[in-house]
């Protein structure tokens, strides 16, 4: 383990291995498909995965991604550096997890990614800040925390043109499809697929108002197989056809 913090680029080439030390992988750009001990998740902006020591894991990124990786030093370093936070940090690192960051934690990750993390002082202090923050205020995908809606929104937006299933979103949270569906309905008042549909239609509305793209092209970009299906969905959601919505936007801008 040469450095505590490092920036890493991932591609479609699959990486599969294990190592003695624990590791945290923070999403910066793109999506990294990750599997730890048989549990799948995606690492995107404002999210991370925890890889316990000696745990087999695999990852790959078909479209390319960049992540900040924290290779956790031995227990002695945790105790010496984190003091009262050491025990909670060790517990956090004991089992695989898919987590989402608070805005402040995400800001810290972005700052470190733009810093000279090859400097040992910056790397050690940055790692200590991240671990202490996560140990005391971690927005987990587990039962006691709310779902990571920001990360889910990002994933839906990035995959709007492609078929999406509840299982695809559930994998981001580490929950089963059934449990995710129940949690999502409880927290948002919508089923996951109703939420996806509304978000796609909102994207379509923004493209209608902000671009000159043909309606059929917009329909494809937000996941509709035909212009007629997109038009019918817009009429149900907003009470108007694409032509009317586009004309109203032009009239309002005059």
From TrEMBL:
InterPro entries: AraC_XylS_family_regulators (IPR050204), Homeodomain-like_sf (IPR009057), HTH_AraC (IPR018060), RmlC-like_jellyroll (IPR014710), RmlC_Cupin_sf (IPR011051), Tscrpt_reg_AraC-type_HTH (IPR020449). Gene3D superfamilies: Homeodomain-like, Jelly Rolls. The keyword Transcription regulation applies. GO terms for molecular function: DNA-binding transcription factor activity; sequence-specific DNA binding. Pfam families: HTH_18. Keywords: DNA-binding, Transcription, Transcription regulation. PROSITE patterns: HTH_ARAC_FAMILY_2 (PS01124). SUPFAM superfamilies: Homeodomain-like (SSF46689), RmlC-like cupins (SSF51182). Residues 150-248 form the HTH araC/xylS-type domain. Regulatory protein of the TOL plasmid xyl operons. XylS activates the xylXYZLTEGFJQKIH operon required for the degradation of toluene, m-xylene and p-xylene. This is AraC family transcriptional regulator.
């Amino acid at each position: 383990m040469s450095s505590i913090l490092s920036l890493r680029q991932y591609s479609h080439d699959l990486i599969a291995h294990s190592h003695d030390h624990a590791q945290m992988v923070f999403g910066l750009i793109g999506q990294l498909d990750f599997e730890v001990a048989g549990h799948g998740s995606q690492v995107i902006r404002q999210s991370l995965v925890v890889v316990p020591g000696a745990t087999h894991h695999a990852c790959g990124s078909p479209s390319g991604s960049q992540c900040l990786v924290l290779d956790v030093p031995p227990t002695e370093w945790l105790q010496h550096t984190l003091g009262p936070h050491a025990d909670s940090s060790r517990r956090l690192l004991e089992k695989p997890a898919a987590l989402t960051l608070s805005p402040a934690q995400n800001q810290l990750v972005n700052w470190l990614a733009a810093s000279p993390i090859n400097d040992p002082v910056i790397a050690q202090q940055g790692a200590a800040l991240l671990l202490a923050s996560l140990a005391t205020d971690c927005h987990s995908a587990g039962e006691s925390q709310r779902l990571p809606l920001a990360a889910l929104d990002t994933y839906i937006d990035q995959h709007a043109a492609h078929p999406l299933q509840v299982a695809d979103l559930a994998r981001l949270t580490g929950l089963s499809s059934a449990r995710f569906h129940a949690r999502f309905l409880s927290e948002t008042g919508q089923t996951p697929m109703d939420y996806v549909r509304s978000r796609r239609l909102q994207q379509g509305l923004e493209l209608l108002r902000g671009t000159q793209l043909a309606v059929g092209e917009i329909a494809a970009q937000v996941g509709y197989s035909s212009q007629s299906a997109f038009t019918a969905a817009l009429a149900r959601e907003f009470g108007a056809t694409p032509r009317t919505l586009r004309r109203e936007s032009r009239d309002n801008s005059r």
